[in-house]
């Protein structure tokens, strides 16, 4: 298989797997999937807010998902393994918040109230910024879009790729389809748990200046060094006289 075909095949596999898990684990706080491939085994790590529901009773549900993935993608026996990983902070996970907003709207909660609730929850989770966009037939027959935001948001450049977490969901309402887009601007975390390790390009850290010694202290240190060098010279043995050369 050529390199181009392999990249396309890997992308199709990830896309279909993500769609399957999104539909199956939507109510369990599904927040993404990671595929790690080794020559012997393929490990699939499912990130979710409620990992116990993903595992099921005595691990039954995770075994069923493993069987489905194995049969669909023609894996050999024991060649694929699924794991469940808990999201460290669901307030900083755009996919979890998009699913939460989706179920709020399906439950009949007002759009404005549901969106402001998500924005407030995200900002309380120490995010730098949050934006929620909802489009569709929100009230009446006329479709429109609404934006709810708070804080700081960078969408372009390298910082937009590294720091911004985005998720899109479609809500099948009775009057039509409503689109949801949640964008969260993550905080900088030196440990890399809550957010990226690298600092933003425009963040300037001003360090405190070092304490400069007073002129009296400098003069005293200079005199002490001079006295020490003179003492060493006085203690040094006199140089030996050169022996007369024999003719």
What labels describe this entry?
three-stranded mixed beta sheet, 7 helices, four-stranded antiparallel beta sheet, single chain
Q: What does the model show?
A:
The chain is α+β, with helices and mostly antiparallel strands and 247 residues long. The chain has seven helices and seven strands, in the order αββααβααββαββα. The protein has helices at residues 3-24, 51-55, 60-72, 94-106, 111-124, 157-163, 215-235; strands at residues 30-37, 42-48, 80-86, 129-136, 144-151, 164-172, 177-185. The strands form two sheets. Strands 5-4-7-6 form a four-stranded antiparallel β-sheet. The protein has a three-stranded mixed β-sheet with strand order 1-2-3. The longest helix has 22 residues, at 3-24. It is elongated and about 110 Å long. The N and C termini lie far apart (91 Å).
Produce the secondary structure layout.
Layout: H1 3-24, E1 30-37, E2 42-48, H2 51-55, H3 60-72, E3 80-86, H4 94-106, H5 111-124, E4 129-136, E5 144-151, H6 157-163, E6 164-172, E7 177-185, H7 215-235
Sequence of secondary-structure elements: HEEHHEHHEEHEEH
Overall pLDDT metric: 87
Total of helices: 7
Shape: elongated
Share of residues in strands: 15-25%
How would a textbook summarize the main sheet?
4 strands, antiparallel
Put the structure in a nutshell.
The protein is an alpha+beta fold.
